[in-house]
Write a structure and sequence with these properties.
mainly alpha, single chain, globular
Length: 110
């Protein structure tokens, strides 16, 4: 079966979980960092990513806003979501460590 047909057979929940995972990877962020940006716990993000809980439409909108993409690109799946990710949000070698050091200096938890 082609990748395109596999994608079509994915449920919306699976597409969102895959898109969030792809965005986390592409941006070089952890679930803890995403959780802080969304104002939820890392455990809540983990439950949503494992499928134990669903990403609500409001959650999807917040995730899309955090990554600077349209919510429809998030709902379309990992390929569209990561293609839409602005260059400034993409992981750059060494940037994540610098980002965490800056957050620590500001007193933030990352």
């Amino acid at each position: 079966m082609s990748a395109r047909l596999d994608f079509v057979s994915m449920s919306l929940d699976e597409r969102v979980r895959s898109a969030v995972a792809a965005l986390l990877h592409a941006a070089g962020e952890s679930q803890t960092e995403l959780a802080a940006a969304l104002g939820v716990s890392q455990a809540q993000v983990s439950r949503r990513q494992s499928g134990a809980a669903a990403w609500s439409l409001a959650d999807c909108e917040a995730v899309a806003t955090h990554y600077g993409i349209d919510v429809l690109e998030l709902l379309a799946g990992p390929t569209r979501a990561t293609e839409a990710l602005p260059a400034a949000r993409r992981r750059v070698p060494g940037r994540q460590a610098a980002h965490r050091r800056a957050a620590a200096l500001e007193g933030g938890v990352r």
